[in-house]
Amino acid sequence: MLNPAPATPAPRPITFTGNPLDRAGNPRRDAAWMTGKRRAPDSRFLPLRELKPLVDISSQPARLAWQDALWAARHESLPAIFLGLDTAGIAHFVLDCDSAPDTADLHGETVKYIDVRSIAPQVSLGEAAILAQARSLVDWHQRHRFCAQCGTATGAVEGGYSRRCTNPDCKAQHFPRTDPVVIMLAVRRDTKTGQDMVLLGRQPHFPPGMYSALAGFMEPGETMEEAVRREIFEEAGVPCGAVRYIASQPWPFPSSLMLGCVAEATAETIAIDPQELEEARWFSRDQIAVMLERATDPEASPRLSHPISLAHQITRRWIAGA
Fold it and tell me: What are the Pro residues biased-composition ranges (predicted)?
C-alpha cells in the first residue's frame, strides 16, 4: 500500500527541450558563410569525445565547457557541426574530437567529459537541449560516412546538416534521421471504486522498483494514434480507443523524438508480452502521485522513472489535468 502523497506540483519543463540557439537554416547552406563563422574570433566550440561533452562542474548548475576560436584553430582538421547562433549572433559548434588524442587532456578535476544522460539534469534547460542536438548530430555523422546508394565516401555539407556522396555519378544527399517513438499512458475509470487508473509496465532491464509508460517505435505507414493503440495492445493486451497528444521530447540516444500520449483503455484485463515486459499493472491516481515524488529515490518501490524522462513528465501532466 502507498500512503497518499501531497498535492503534485506543476510539471517542470521537459529535459532536452527549449534550445536557445537559432539554427540559421538558410545561411548555413552558404559554404563561405559557414567557413567565416568557424574562423570568427568570437565563435564557441564544444568538444565531444565518445559522444561525451566537455562540462565544467565547478559551478552550480554545471555548464558546458565551450572552447574559444584559438583552441579550435589548433584543431581545424576535426569535424565541426554548426549548432546555431545565440542572441548576440555568436556561432556555436560541436567538434567530434575522437580522432585527436590531445583533446583528452582537457579532462581534469573540474572540467570533464561526461555522458549526456548523466549530466543533462545538472545543466540549464537550454544547455541540455543543445546537448541533445549536438550528440544526435555527431552520432549520425559517425554512422553515415558512406553513401547508402553506392557505398562511396560522403562529405558533410550545410554546416553538418547533410552529407553528400563524393561519387560524381551519384551525388546522393543524405540527411540526419529522427526516429519517432510513441510513449503513452493507458488510462481508465475503475467502475468499482470510481478511481482513475493508469497502466505502467516494467521491462526486464529496469532498476528494481521502477515502472514507466509503455513505448515503441512508429512503423511505416502508421499514424501516431495507430501506433499508440498497437503498442499498448502488443505489449499489455489492453485495447484502447481515443488517443490524445500531451507533449514531445528529443531523445538523443541516438536520435529519437518521443511523442507523449494518453489513450483511453476500453478493457482492464492485462496480458503481457513477456518478450517486451516482465510486468504491467494498473495504478490509481493516488498511487501515481506518490510514485512521482519517489522517482529520484533508487531504493523506493514502486516508483516512476526519473524526471528526465518523458514518461515521468506526461504522467505528471496527466495528474495535473492534461
Answer: 1-12
